[in-house]
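Summary for the steering committee. One of the milestones for this cycle was to obtain a three-dimensional model of the protein with 4'-deoxy-4'-aminopyridoxal-5'-phosphate bound, which we needed before selecting residues for the alanine scan. The sequence and ligand used are listed below.
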Amino acid sequence: MYFNSDTLVYLDGKFVKASDASCSVYAQTLHYGYSVFEGIRSYKTPNGTQIFKAKEHYERLHFSCQTVGLPLNYSVEELTELTYQVLERNNLQDAYIRPLVYAGTPNMSLTAAQESNLLIAAWEWGKYLGDRTLRVMVSPYERPNPKSVPVEAKVSGHYVNSTIACSDAKAKGYDEALLLDMNGFVAEGPGANFFYEKDGELFTAPPGSILCGITRNTIIDLAREAGITVHEKFFKPDVLQEADAAFMTGTAAEVVGVQSINERLFPKPYEESIGAFLGKRYSELVTGKLVLA
Ligand code: PMP
């Protein structure tokens, strides 16, 4: 699914077959989750294949590297150009792109890496959480305390928290988890941000314990452009009992409706909700059919 015998990836200065790319089993990253990554999408548009918000994603990759002390010797422009080459060499248009900066050198110390490796892979990937509205449960797992780890950096190790929360929700018969922060406020999903709708306005968690998604920010822009008020404020899960509708956002998931939280169905049909409206606007934006001033 991710690659076949023809797939090429960019790895440390060369385009190599994905099946030939390898990494030391003594790599610092493999043992400690010490690497950072991005999730980006490209879309077929009237102006050819376009990577959506490449600058924002590669600036965040730089921020993540700086935050954990991983060197990254490529500029945002170089990373963008290399990514277009990965797409072209693999004949991809609508694609999911995964850059990974990792410490591949054998090293068992707990000190910042002196050198890093860069992988850029891409593959065709449908909406990560599917197209149907989701049955979500409030997770018993909290998002990491921002005083323990830099939650605004996209660090591989953080995704252990995401993986156990998501697996736990699925094992209990739900589609996805919703995680609270250390103070009991709603934070986000394992790989997506969360919004709810009440009386024609949107609410979402503020920065602090969340990865402030690029999709989240795009949705806030699209909402405000359409005259919809968006509140970035802390809220407890009990307010969701009174909410009209909800949705999640992320590069992989795009915009996906939430049908229920802990079995409580939202009263507004998703197709009539602000989430569905903004989801359509988002699709038009990424495919170049909508151009914002
Ligand atoms: N939160 C988490 C924990 C994520 O992994 C993601 C996916 N990167 C998001 C939010 C959404 O971020 P973005 O919209 O930038 O993809």
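Key point for the committee: The chain has a mean pLDDT of 97.
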